[in-house]
Amino acid sequence: MDSRDKQQTDKNHHLVQAMGHAIDGIVEVLKEERNMRFHVAAAICAILVAFYLHISSMEWLWILLAIFVVFTAEFLNTVTEAVTDLIVDHHYELNVKKAKDVAAGGVLISAIFAVIVGLVIFIPHFLAII
Question: Which residues contribute to the annotated binding site for a divalent metal cation?
């Protein structure tokens, strides 16, 4: 992407252009958000354990669903934080706190879901090994 794309104000004209912006967003979240890096590390661990345990196709679908739900929640939380900070210019505002807390709660709920999915799938496999 050239420097004009970084300051684009009109609609994307090509799929490649849109994909480039999406990739920029993913890279930005990975660079700037500590919690996202933790989620990626947890996802990698879950995937490695799943490979080790030779889980079924249906179990893979659940594991991948849980991973991508958490990733999506973290992305939406990051958007909420950025937009609300922009609106109030980083000043304390009760409604901004509420929006950020609710978005963070969504990440927490999705992470709890992911842990439950992991436990339901992995525990029987580990018990079978023992």
Answer: 33, 81
